Structure formats: C-alpha cells, structure tokens
Amino acid sequence: MPTIRKEILIEATPEQVWDAVRDVGAVHRRLVPKYTEDTRMNGHERTLTMLGGNVVREYIVSVDDQARRMAYAVVESQTPLLHHHASFQVFPHEDGGALLVWTTDFLPDGLAAEIQARVDRGSQVMKATIEAEAQGSVR
Questions:
Q1: Three-class DSSP category at 28
Q2: Given CA atoms 3, 45, 137, 32 in this order, what sign does their dihedral have?
Q3: Separation of alpha carbons 11 and 15, rounded Å
Q4: pLDDT tens per residue across span 38-93
Q5: Alpha helices (runs of H) in the chain, residue ranges in sequence order
Q6: Alpha-carbon 110 to chain mean position
Q7: Whole-model pTM above 0.90?
Q8: Is the pLDDT reported for residue 139 higher than 50?
Q9: Taking a C-beta distance cutoff of 8 angstroms, is the pair 42, 31 a contact?
Q10: For residue 132, what pLDDT band results from cuts at 50, 70 and 90?
Q11: Domain boundaries, the chain
C-alpha cells in the first residue's frame, strides 16, 4: 500500500496550527479554501464539496488534542479509491514555527501520482491559509 508523507513548515505556533486542523467542520475556511467550497458535519461523518462540484465523504476517525493528531478516512469520492486513510499531526519546530505532518495511505497504487499532486497542492494552500490566519488577516 502506498504511503505519502508530507512535512509542512508553517510560520505559526503549534497551537495555532492545531486549532485550524482540529476544526474539522471548517476545512473550506481554515485549511484549503481554494479547494473546498463547503464542509458539512453529521456526527463523525464529514462531507466536503469541492470547487468543481465533486463531493467527498469522510469519517473523522480521531481528534486527539494531547497528541495534536487528527485522522480521517475517505469512504466515498469520485476517485476510484479502494482504501484511503490519512492523518495530520502538529509538532513544534526547532526554528520556532510548527511542523505539520500529513500522512496518507491509499489503494490502488495507480493513484500515486494523482494523490501526490493533490497533497503537494493542498499543502501549499494549507500553509498559506494557516499563516495568514496566524498573522490575523483571515477568519
């Protein structure tokens, strides 16, 4: 099973980054506003409406405040996934900011290039969004 691990250095405190990540119902505002149009929550189920109209249904598996870790699984999407599980974890960075680690496991293997591109672009948008919020220019 392929794994993509992306480390994102963010110029914000770990607390600020974790606050955005743990806000699982506000993905469209606090993490990837240029990718998602809306987020709806129904218990542990999250439904994301993407800018192109695609809908992704996920289960929020865990929100662990002590470990600053959030895990989710895609259960329905237009992409032909057999399996998808991902997590975000926030760590203090030695240079004073935060390190956000995004780990994604998925099947089938043939989706690796597409998922890598999504993770790379999503990481750029998350970094910019969280940094702008931390500087007080968003929210």
A1: helix
A2: positive
A3: 12
A4: 999 999 999 999 998 999 999 999 999 999 999 999 999 988 999 999 999 999 99
A5: 14-22, 27-30, 112-134
A6: 22
A7: yes
A8: no
A9: no
A10: very high
A11: 3-134
Residue with tokens 């089938």: 108
CA 34 to chain centre: 13
Residues pairing with 49 in the sheet:
38, 55
Asked if residues 84 and 104 have their Cβ atoms less than 8 Å apart, the reply is yes
CATH topology of domain 3-134: Alpha-D-Glucose-1,6-Bisphosphate; Chain A, domain 4 (3.30.530)
- As a whole number of angstroms, the distance between CA 48 and CA 122 comes to 14
- CB-CB contact of 91 with 110 (8 Å): no
pLDDT of residue 59: 98
> Which of 3, 4, 9 is closest to 128 using CA atoms?
9
Residues forming a β-bridge with 85? 73, 105
